[in-house]
Specification:
The protein is of the alpha+beta class. The chain has one domain: Orthogonal Bundle (434 Repressor (Amino-terminal Domain)). The protein contains five helices and three strands, in the order ββαααααβ. A three-stranded antiparallel sheet has the order 1-2-3. α2 packs across α3.
């Protein structure tokens, strides 16, 4: 598992891995998500492959696409609590 961040309490999945997981779980193609975000499929592909950064406002739109709050979306990136 690739980690993008780790502190004493949490581990987080890599952004690209999580985006791919969410997209497949909801049955979308890269093209469909890109259309909903008003970006090219290539731009979205770059996000999943972590070749470019995701603008912060796009996380709000992603949360909307997946019918969750921004807080819920952030928790999807959380691998586990390490209490």
């Amino acid at each position: 598992m690739i980690l993008i961040y780790k502190d004493k309490q949490h581990k987080f999945r890599a952004i690209g891995v999580t985006l791919r997981m969410l997209r497949k779980k909801h049955g979308y193609t890269q093209e469909q998500i890109a259309e909903k975000l008003f970006i090219s499929r290539q731009a979205y592909c770059f996000w999943e492959s972590e070749r470019s950064e995701i603008p912060l406002f796009s996380f709000l739109k992603l949360a909307d696409i997946y019918s969750m709050s921004l807080e819920e979306l952030i928790h999807v990136f959380l691998v586990e609590d390490l209490d």
